[in-house]
Every structure is written in structure tokens, then in C-alpha cells.
Design brief:
Layout: H1 15-34, E1 46-51, H2 59-72, E2 77-81, H3 92-101, E3 107-109, H4 113-123, E4 129-133, E5 145-151, E6 179-183, H5 188-201, E7 206-220, E8 223-227, E9 237-241, H6 247-257, E10 266-267, H7 276-285, E11 291-293, H8 296-302, E12 314-325, H9 327-338
Parallel strand pairs: 1-4, 1-5, 2-3, 2-4, 5-6, 6-7, 9-10, 9-11, 11-12
Antiparallel strand pairs: 7-8, 7-12
Helix pairs in contact: 3-8
């Protein structure tokens, strides 16, 4: 898989027929859920955060932002996620949430989210609201809010369904959403065009969100420190990542450094486990670098490498979502939903 097509080049001639099969299966599944078959309502309000396409919309920082709102309002939220490619029982995203919230926000990370939540409620009855991470296609659990993130730089109306394109569902599925969040709106032209198109097909509230690095966490043999983003300016850096759509991250690294990378960026498949041969490859590539720059998601696995093994400091940006339009309304809706009595 690469950044412009889900299929390897030799398989692309079969993309059309495979997409047709995928959409046929999806239609049957959607019809079942539309009729309410197999849908379970739990006794806590549920807020789903998901997307229409594969990767790169800012789902994890958005879930974290919503969890922060709920904590500040006195709630005890739990995050339920699939736990994709978990290592030692902890997925990349779950490790991020644990690092940020500790025990304040329980995280259920397993394929059967419903079973995991019911077990959590039995041991932690104080949980009073659930956030479904990547929940738009996980329709088994009923929800009171269905927030869908759309990357402004990747117009879904110009895309196709898997495996011919990056869409998990056709754009008609947006009719299920209660709220739409347009991300990467720092790209103003693309955001304006897509916002106008979405307004033509939906009256769903539209929120604008920018992705921004707030600071850097830098690790060297002396420990961890926090630095402003301009610490990277004019440094020779090596970008390292294993995320679904790495383009935005690599562009942000280039902008922050203001110069070409020290070596070819190490870009791995999504959720790569970072086995020892890969670590050795990164160490070799970083031999002439002033710093390695990676994501919080990747750091959840790279952190097991002793600091003295790295040939230079390792920097990871703190990514935050800044809501520039409609943010107060979205927050109010989240808090109102969290106070809803179910059943």
C-alpha cells in the first residue's frame, strides 16, 4: 500500500470489480443496521467519533479533546476502541490515551467493544458516558451523537470506496452523521470548497478544525524536556512514522525544519510493530541527523528503546485540534448528550 492508492500496482486492474463486491456487501450490512437488527442500546450515552475514509483525519486528538471536555465538566468518560494490532494487549491509540489521561479515562480496546464495555461497567460503575473511537462503521452500539471527521484536503466526492479508493463508505453514508467536523482547514481554499459542497447535500452542523503542533517533547540521554516547535528550525531531521496517511506529518516536519530531511524519511506501513531490524534501520538512517521526529502514536512503541541507543535526540510533536468555527456549539452538544438519561 502507498499514499496514493490502497492497492499494489499489479492489483489495480481489479480495483473496479473488487469495489463493486465491497459495496454490495456494505449495502447488505447497512440495510440490516438501518432496520435496527443487531443494534444494542446501552444504559449510558454514547458519542461516536469516526470518519468516512481510511486514516489521517485527526480522530485520536479529537477523541482526546472530547474526553477532556467531559472530564472538565465532572463526567467520567470511557473510550471504547477496536484495539487494532494491539501489542501486549495495548494498541497504539490506547497507549496514547493512557499516556494522556492515566486512570482518569478508562480505555476498552478489544474487537468486541460491547462485551468490553459491559465488563467495564461491572467493575467501574462511575463511568457515565462512552466515546466510541472510530465508531462510524461500528454500528452495533447505538449512539446519541455520530460525529464524522472529513479531511478538507481529501475531498470524499472525488474518491472511491475500498479498494479502488480510500472511502470506507460512499458519501451517502454522511446522512447518518449528527455532526460533521472538517479537519485540516488550515488549507483554506480546499476547506471552503468542500464546506460549500457539504452544505449542498446536508444540513448537519459543520465544524471547522485546524491541526497544529503546540509543542515538542524531546528525549535525549538526560531525559525528557518540552520545547517550542521552532526548536526544529534549520535542524537536519529524520522523520519516522508508521501511520495511515503520512503526507500531512511529513509536510509539517519539512515546514518546521525549514530544510530537506537529513536522510530519506523512514515511512512504514500503518501500525508497524517496530521490530529490532526496523529500529536498527532507523538508527543507521539517523547517523547524520540532528534529531529524529516521530508521532505520539509511533512513540508508544519506540519508547521501549533505551535513550542512549539513539544517535540524536528524538522529538515528538504534541498535536492538537483547534476548532475555528462551530467549536462552542459542538462542545455544548457533547455536554448536553453526556447528561442525557438513557433507558
Amino acid at each position: 500500500m502507498n499514499d496514493d492508492h490502497p492497492l499494489p500496482r499489479p492489483l489495480r486492474p481489479f480495483a473496479g470489480p473488487l469495489e463493486s463486491l465491497y459495496r454490495a456487501g456494505l449495502a447488505r450490512r447497512s440495510m440490516r443496521f438501518d432496520e435496527g437488527r443487531g443494534v444494542v442500546t446501552i444504559d449510558r450515552p454514547v458519542i461516536s467519533v469516526g470518519n468516512l475514509s481510511v486514516g489521517g483525519t485527526g480522530k485520536t486528538p479529537t477523541v482526546a479533546m472530547i474526553a477532556g471536555w467531559l472530564l472538565d465538566a465532572g463526567h467520567r468518560p470511557a473510550i471504547a476502541m477496536r484495539g487494532y494490532r494491539a501489542r501486549n494487549g495495548i494498541s497504539d491509540e490506547a497507549a496514547e490515551y493512557h499516556a494522556r489521561f492515566g486512570s482518569a479515562v478508562p480505555v476498552v480496546a478489544q474487537p468486541d467493544r460491547l462485551e468490553g464495555l459491559l465488563r467495564l461497567f461491572a467493575t467501574d460503575p462511575a463511568v457515565d458516558v462512552v466515546i466510541l473511537d472510530d465508531g462510524f462503521q461500528h454500528r452495533r452500539i447505538a449512539r446519541q451523537m455520530d460525529i464524522v471527521l472529513i479531511d478538507a484536503t481529501r475531498n470524499p466526492f472525488d474518491d472511491r470506496c475500498l479498494p479502488a479508493g480510500w472511502l470506507r463508505e460512499p458519501t451517502s453514508a454522511l446522512s447518518r452523521a449528527t455532526d460533521l467536523v472538517l479537519t485540516h482547514t488550515e488549507h483554506t481554499g480546499a476547506a471552503e470548497a468542500l464546506s460549500e459542497r457539504l452544505g449542498e447535500i446536508s444540513s448537519t452542523p459543520l465544524v471547522w478544525a485546524e491541526h497544529a503542533w503546540s509543542s515538542l517533547v524531546i528525549l535525549d540521554p538526560g531525559g525528557e524536556t518540552t520545547a517550542p516547535v521552532d526548536w526544529l528550525a534549520d535542524r537536519k531531521v529524520l522523520p519516522v512514522c508508521a501511520i495511515g496517511r503520512p503526507g500531512a506529518f511529513l509536510d509539517a516536519v519539512r515546514r518546521a525544519a525549514g530544510r530537506p530531511p537529513a536522510a530519506e524519511p523512514v515511512v512504514l506501513r500503518d501500525h508497524d510493530p517496530y521490530r529490532p531490524p526496523t529500529i536498527r534501520r532507523i538508527i543507521r538512517a539517523a547517523a547524520g541527523a540532528d534529531a529524529i521526529v516521530t508521532t505520539e502514536k509511533d512513540w508508544s512503541k519506540l519508547a521501549r528503546v533505551p535513550p542512549t541507543h539513539w544517535p540524536c535526540p528524538v522529538a515528538r510533536p504534541r498535536l492538537e485540534i483547534r476548532l475555528t468555527r462551530g467549536g462552542d456549539t459542538l462542545r455544548d452538544r457533547v455536554l448536553k448528550t453526556a447528561g442525557t438519561r438513557i433507558g
